């Protein structure tokens, strides 16, 4: 296991812990994709390989503000009792994982790829498995870190 994969696994564990705190209806996860011809084509290919349960219509370049909105919508909405200070610490911890992934890929590169202009993409995804779901992709060197946040349909 290379260092990038190790840090992506750590981020997966962090998101899993957040999922436990938020409850069974929530689903959070992360995948590390190889950049094969650009972020848009790599992300579209990833969702097409998942099968008919997912549909990705487009992938748009966005900003860190959009990621913060997604965190508010999925993660912090499920934890209303948390104070602002706690929410900021959780967000900082999440950002730290992307920094670890980035420096594992290029120790001299940007520590926080979420703040790098042009590094964040938000695919327009729908899924039969979720009432609502959102993803964001972060370009980190030759990798794309694809993070998913969703609210599951009742079974």
Tally of DSSP helical segments: 4
User: β content, as a range?
Assistant: 25-35%
Rg (CA only)? 15 Å
- Return the structural class: alpha+beta
How many strand elements?
5
Q: Which strands sit side by side, in order, in the main sheet?
A: 1-5-4-3-2
What is the average per-residue confidence, as pLDDT, rounded to a whole number?
Answer: 92
Helix-residue proportion: 40-55%
SSE series:
HEHEHHEEE
Tell me about this structure:
- The protein has four helices and five strands; from the N terminus they run H-E-H-E-H-H-E-E-E.
- It is an alpha+beta fold and 155 residues long.
- The chain has one domain (3-148).
- It has a five-stranded antiparallel β-sheet, with helices on both faces.
- Helix 1 (3-22) packs antiparallel against helix 4.
- The model has no long low-confidence stretch (mean pLDDT 92).
Gist of the model:
It contains four helices and five strands, in the order αβαβααβββ.
List the helices and strands and how they pair.
Elements: H1 3-22, E1 26-34, H2 39-49, E2 54-62, H3 64-76, H4 84-105, E3 120-127, E4 130-140, E5 143-152
Antiparallel strand pairs: 1-5, 2-3, 3-4, 4-5
Helix pairs in contact: 1-4
Supply database-style keywords:
single chain; 155 residues; 30% strand
């Amino acid at each position: 296991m290379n260092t990038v994969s190790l840090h992506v696994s750590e981020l997966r564990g962090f998101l899993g812990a957040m999922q436990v705190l938020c409850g069974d209806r929530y689903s959070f996860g992360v995948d590390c994709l190889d950049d094969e011809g650009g972020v848009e084509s790599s992300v579209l290919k990833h969702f097409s390989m998942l099968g008919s349960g997912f549909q990705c219509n487009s992938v748009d370049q966005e900003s860190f503000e959009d990621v913060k909105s997604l965190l508010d919508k999925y993660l912090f909405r499920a934890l209303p009792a948390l104070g602002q200070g706690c929410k900021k610490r959780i967000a900082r911890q999440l950002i730290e994982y992307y920094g670890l992934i980035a420096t594992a890929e290029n120790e001299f590169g940007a520590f926080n790829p979420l703040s790098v202009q042009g590094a964040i993409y938000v695919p327009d995804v729908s899924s039969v498995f979720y009432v609502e779901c959102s993803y964001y992709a972060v370009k980190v060197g030759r990798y794309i870190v694809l993070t998913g946040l969703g609210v599951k349909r009742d079974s």
